[in-house]
Each structure stands twice: as C-alpha cells, then as structure tokens.
Design brief:
The protein is mainly beta. 9% of the residues lie in helices and 55% in strands. The protein has a single domain, classed as Porin (Beta Barrel). It has three helices and 18 strands. It has a 16-stranded antiparallel barrel with strand order 1-3-4-6-7-8-9-10-11-12-13-14-15-16-17-18. Strand 10 and strand 11 form a beta hairpin.
Length: 351
C-alpha cells in the first residue's frame, strides 16, 4: 500500500513538473473606432471600423522548456474585423490567409532563436516601433505610406508585413543590439529567384533607440510567393531612430524603395517621417506624426504624397485605452480628390 502511494505521489509530482515546464496562452486585441474618413483619391465615408490604432487579432502561443537552456515554442495568430466579425484584414479573394499574423514553430536558447513558418517581414518591427502611432493601418502616416498607398504599385515596402514559408533567425542581444535574418522560400520549381531575403537590426539603450532594415522581394504584395514574375525585383531599406527626453519622445526615419519590372527600373521612392510623443498626464499622450514620399515614375509623371496625423491616446487601465485622431492626406498622383481629411475616435482593449 505504501509503495503504491509513493508511486502515485511520484507520478503526480512528475506531472506537475512537466506542466510547470510548459505554457499555453490565449491573447489578442480588439480595436474599434467611429469616424469620418477620406484618404487622397477616395470619397468620404462615415464608418464604424475595426483597427483604428491596431489591427484587431487573436492568437494562441506556447513554450516548452526542453532543458539545458533550450525552449520550443509555437504561435498561431489571426486578424479579424470586429465591426462585422469577419476573419482577416481583408477578404480571402485578395490573398489573406487565416493565420496571417502568425503560424510558426521555434527553438530558442543561448544561440538566439530559429523560427519556421509565417511571421513578421523584415520591414515590420522597424516601421511600427519608430513612429508614434505604432502599427496603425488607419492613421499612422509612415505605415500608410509603406503599406496602404492606394495601389500595390506605390507601396514603399517590397512585401506584406508578414512573410509565409520563411526561416527567421534572431540573434541574442549584444549590448542592446539584436538582429533578425529572414529567408523566404519561393516554392516554385525552376524559379529560385522568387526567394526573398531581408535583415533588420534594432538597438535599445536607455532613452536612445536605433534601427535599420533591408529587404528584397520578387513581388509587391505576397501573402504567398506564388505571383512571382521573372525579372521583377523590389528592394527597400530604412534607417530610424528615437530619443526619449522624458518631457517628449522624438522619432525620425528615412528610407528608399526601388521597383524593377523585366529587369528595368519602374519606380524610385524616397520617404522620410518625423514623430513626436508628448505625455500630458500620467495616463495620456499627445501624438504628432508626418510622412513624405517622393516617387520618381520612370514611365509617367513624378509625384509626392504627404500625410500628417495629430492625436491623443489615454489609458483607462493597463489593457484599455481610448483615442482620438485627426489626419490630413495629400497625394499629387490624383487628378481629382488630391487631398482628404479624416477624424476618428475609438477604444482599444487587450486580453
């Protein structure tokens, strides 16, 4: 009887230890706003939208301690539109995958980490960390110029914010410096040129932060690399920095994008952005951002786009904040509706 009780106790202890070495977490974010929206080239719309400051998403991630400093992990994350309950950032017909945010497995240790599957593209972290409106695809001037320029041809990033079919290696931190190396497989027989590569470097040291990234991709917009066309090449780089003075935090970026079709240059774009975060209360900050893109169009007229946003973000708790933003957008490319103004108020909750 004693031996049986001892064996049962050992089994329970081992089960508890195994459970303590593993964890699985459900997390996500719901962001809703109401506003009157008008980007350059578009008509005005009154809308109740999803993702004013951050795209709404949900996901599951977990880790397992393998011992000797080695850990295994996984992440599955999906975007959704909370205003309609529809999966994805946009309709499936436009190439959105269900787990478009994350779908990967990883190993990490003293060597850094190695991740396999869909995850962030090289451009994503440097772009969202070094502007005061973060990863807003609605009101952040820098993000709008990079990803939402009314046409895939005029995006300043060479790809989507996430890459499928990729290997990502992240270095350990060396004095506050971390690098991510990205390689995306083309997965098309006889078209090895479809493989996309990129790297980003981030430095965080007290009030100063710096970043740089470079990526080259075989297509403009690629949830998957199946639309690769021989002779098409798109490269993009950016330098950025921020400094927190306490009374205010300053942001600045500068980058360029080149696009080639049939081995001939098609577009040459240069973008700079400036930003400011000013705490006005213990829970609230005033945000100001500006982005300017000059496009040299080889087979057409050159043009400029300018976007500015002014907003206030107030935290009601650690997980919930309310915000209000006014934005002005001007794009010389359009013969009519060259400019537009938008106003949005919303609430964002993390879980």
């Amino acid at each position: 009887m004693k031996k049986t009780l001892i064996a049962f106790g050992v089994a329970v202890t081992c089960m508890g230890a195994a459970q303590a070495q593993s964890s699985v977490q459900l997390s996500g974010l719901v962001d809703m706003y109401a506003g009157s929206m008008k980007l350059a080239g578009n008509d005005r719309t009154s809308e109740l939208g999803s993702g004013g400051m951050t795209t709404s998403w949900w996901g599951v991630n977990g880790t397992e301690d393998l011992g000797n400093g080695l850990k295994a992990g996984f992440a599955l994350g999906a975007f959704f539109r909370a205003d309609t309950g529809t999966p994805g950032r946009f309709d499936q017909a436009f190439g959105e995958t269900f787990f478009a945010r994350d779908a990967n497995v990883s190993l990490s240790g003293g060597f850094g980490s190695l991740k396999l599957g869909r995850s962030m593209a090289p451009n994503f972290l440097p772009t969202i960390v070094f502007n005061p409106f973060g990863d807003s695809f609605t009101v952040s001037p820098l993000v709008l110029h990079a990803n939402m320029n009314n046409s895939a041809d005029y995006k300043t990033t060479a790809s989507d914010t996430g890459w499928s079919n990729q290997i990502t290696y992240t270095t350990p931190s060396f004095g506050g410096v971390t690098a991510n190396i990205h390689y995306q497989f083309g997965e098309q027989a006889g078209k090895t040129g479809a493989n996309n590569i990129g790297v980003n470097v981030l430095y965080f040291g007290g009030p100063l932060a710096l970043t740089a990234f470079y990526e080259t991709a075989g297509l403009l917009n690629n949830p998957t690399p199946t639309n690769y066309v021989a002779g098409t090449k798109n490269s993009n780089w950016m330098l950025g920095g921020s400094y927190d003075f306490g009374a205010a935090k300053l942001y600045a970026t500068y980058g360029a994008s080149d696009k080639e079709v049939a081995n001939a240059k098609k577009l040459d774009q240069k973008t700079y952005s400036l930003g400011l975060d000013v705490p006005v209360t213990k829970a609230g900050t005033v945000k100001l951002a500006y982005a300017h893109t000059k496009t040299d169009w080889v087979v057409g007229s050159d043009f400029k786009r300018q976007t500015a946003s002014l907003g206030y973000d107030h935290y009601l708790s650690k997980r919930t904040d309310a915000y209000a933003v006014a934005m002005y957008d001007k794009d010389d490319r359009f013969a009519a509706n060259k400019s537009g103004t938008s106003v949005a108020v919303g609430i964002r909750h993390r879980f």
